[in-house]
């Protein structure tokens, strides 16, 4: 995708998602495989956004969010799953505008909670002002 060859990138992402889906279905209790599948859905959503396919993007990000929801039901304090769940929330909020406020609020709660506990790395700490800014933009509209 970075090289601009969207058709090839799309095929690669679809192949990756299909493989990860088979692995996740073969062992539904394997949390790592479920998380990998969520990431594949996120990549498919990013691709759909680049291609202007909003409905496909929404569906992909929602699929990722659903997987993280199931993982967090089993492992509610797992930092990687908490952080992973923030990504589809931010992407969904960007696509849904004002209707996406709840996604941003949840993302901010997760990020600030992890920050308060000292479990947020510097790269992801930078997400906090981005989410706060997006919320401020919604407030100003």
Reconstruct the topology from this structure.
Layout lengths: L5 H21 L4 H20 L3 H21 L4 H18 L4 H16 L5 H4 L1 H14 L1
Structure, explained:
With 141 residues, the protein is mainly α. Helix content is 81%, strand content 0%. Helix 1 packs antiparallel against helix 2 and helix 3 packs antiparallel against helix 4.
Task: Give a short synopsis of this structure.
The protein is 81% helix and 0% strand. The chain is built from seven helices and no strands. α2 (31-50) packs parallel to α4 and α5 runs antiparallel to α7.
Q: Low-confidence segments, ≥5 residues, pLDDT <50?
A: none
**Roughly how many Å apart are the termini?**
33 Å
**Which oligomerization state do the chains in this entry correspond to?**
single chain
Q: Report the strand count.
A: 0
What profile does the largest beta sheet have? none
Overall mean pLDDT score?
Answer: 94
Task: Using brief descriptors, characterize the structure shown.
141 residues, mainly alpha
């Amino acid at each position: 995708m970075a090289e601009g060859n969207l058709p090839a990138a799309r095929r690669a992402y679809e192949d990756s998602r299909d493989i990860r889906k088979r692995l996740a279905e073969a062992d539904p209790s394997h949390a790592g495989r479920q998380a990998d599948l969520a990431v594949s859905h996120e990549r498919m959503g990013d691709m759909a956004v680049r291609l202007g396919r909003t409905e496909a993007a929404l569906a992909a990000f929602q699929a990722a969010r659903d997987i993280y929801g199931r993982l967090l039901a089993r492992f509610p304090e797992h930092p990687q799953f908490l952080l992973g769940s923030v990504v589809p929330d931010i992407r969904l909020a960007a696509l849904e505008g004002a209707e996406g406020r709840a996604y941003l609020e949840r993302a901010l709660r997760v990020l600030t909670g992890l920050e308060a506990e000292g479990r947020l790395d510097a790269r992801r700490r930078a997400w906090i002002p981005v989410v706060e800014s997006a919320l401020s933009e919604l407030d100003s509209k």
